[in-house]
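Please check what follows.
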Amino acid sequence: MLDWFFRLRPEVHGAYHRPVHFRRAILLFALVLGLAALAAAVSPSRQTTGPALAPPQVGSRGDAGAVRQLVFAVGGKRVRRAREGEHVVVSVASEAGGVATIPQLGQTETVSPTAPAQFDLLAPAPGRYDVLITATGATRARRVGTLVTRP
């Protein structure tokens, strides 16, 4: 019925609907945000109050909660030993940035002069596992040591 009025003044037609749509969008956003806050408030927490469970020590003769630090560095001691199933943290230090890898275990981490690469793992099956560093800009990996595991 008022179609003739809006054809004569198109700026009124567009100006009327923009604030209404904007207000509706703000109300919808507030409603969704409120529902998300309500759902977060009533959902159970994932935090546990008890102690964290450690993985079982398979074939370990030492202290069940012990974690061994094995450090590899360029020019340092080249062989480190661990028992199969023992919890070890292998750290690889380098004077230059790059990538440290233990290819046989499928482990890769970045390394820098201020932050050594760290591999937190259970010692694998008995064998010899090369620890390599590929410096930034280098094309070939350089062996810095070997992780030897025994039963």
The two ends are 91 Å apart (CA to CA).
